[in-house]
Write a structure and sequence with these properties.
By secondary structure, the chain is α+β, with helices and mostly antiparallel strands. Helix content is about 25%, strand content about 30%. It is built from nine helices and ten strands. The relative contact order is 0.24.
Amino acid sequence: MFKRSLRTTAVVFLIGAAFMTEAAGAPSPAPAASGMFPDYEVKLLMNPKTTLGPDYKLTSSVLNAFSMPRKTTKMNVAYLDTNSKDITNNGWSIRIRKIEDEDHFELTYKKRYAITNDDINAALTQPNDDGLDSGDESYDSQVEWGDQNKTLSMAYSASVSNAGYTGMDLPPINDTRSLTIGNAPDKFSNWLSASWGKNKLQASRYYGPVLAKRSTGTWRGMKLYIEVWPIKNAAGTGTEYVVEASFKTHSATSASAKHNELAAYLKSKGWLLAQDSLKTQLIMDRY
């Protein structure tokens, strides 16, 4: 029913490599072991009690602080995994996303690696050993920088036509299984054994979907996003709102400095929620 309209990398992440100058205290991104220059995405949680109004939209104070219009962009997001979460338990995350006013679905196959003791170099050797930075497949490397912890992600992305669907609807699960199997990179497909990933996707179900809203503004010359995610609460009886501010940069020095500056600013306004963002984990746990 669907035809692949375009295969791309870096649908989700910024493209390119940047040579970075390091300041004292900033993590070193030297790619000697792997040849990869990751991008950096800083993610900080905001307190929904102080940033959302009674309508669960960002307050005027938040919008004005970051020169954000009232208009938001909708994103319908779901993840695929088996009932026993075999994909997640092996460090992978498979996502389908529809962004408002775009004529395609985004498929993302992401492998995450823990960064311990702030040692990004050591983390970069792991995808190299796994072969995710070699061959014909192109993965985008990114350091996801939270309040306290950092994670290295390797993302392979593809775009497929949403012909036959309207609005923000995602395909039925059977169609999404076919799409994700047909576009899966070889490294995921054959992760533990031949056709391992394809077999897991064939047995997968949706986790979600969640209809999030994104606001776009600026902060100190950088593009800043604030997303509001309505996620089912732990009891399954209501909704918990996750509010996440983020920005991207090619520079580790900028990521380190701006992370601290933004955290301090949000704290001064009473908007900071000082914990790492776990929205993907919440979705996997609650749906």
